[in-house]
Fold this sequence. Notes:
Blueprint: H1 6-10, H2 23-35, H3 41-54, H4 57-66, H5 68-76, H6 85-102, H7 111-130
Helix pairs in contact: 3-4, 5-6, 5-7, 6-7
Amino acid sequence: MQSKSYLDVIQPPLPFGRVMNAPDTIAAYLASVHAAPSLTREQECQLGWNIINEGCQASREQLACAHQRLVVAIASNYTSRGVRFPDLLDAGTVGLHRAVSTYDPATGVAFSTHASWWIKQLLLNVISASCKDVPA
């Protein structure tokens, strides 16, 4: 029986059917991330209210797609920690989706600030799970 990695346990399937293993797949993924339009603060708030009041799935996806660039930027800061970049992107995406689920525009905090915390938490969890114990 093959053991499960930390991401297999905590991560739901990637959104939009994305699978990231081959370098050309990562390049295509990064190109699609950078092609996504940015949102204004007002648009973020409106999407946040749509998610809270109506449970709008389209608003969730739009907010997540627009901030996937943030995941790439933050994950690139952790590439020297012994975890593969695609795994960091996976974990960051999970953090982004958690941020979308917990975002409340009434707090006045920008979504990117809120999402950064969740993305970093998931990245650090994956990095710490990948560390091996050092014998005393």
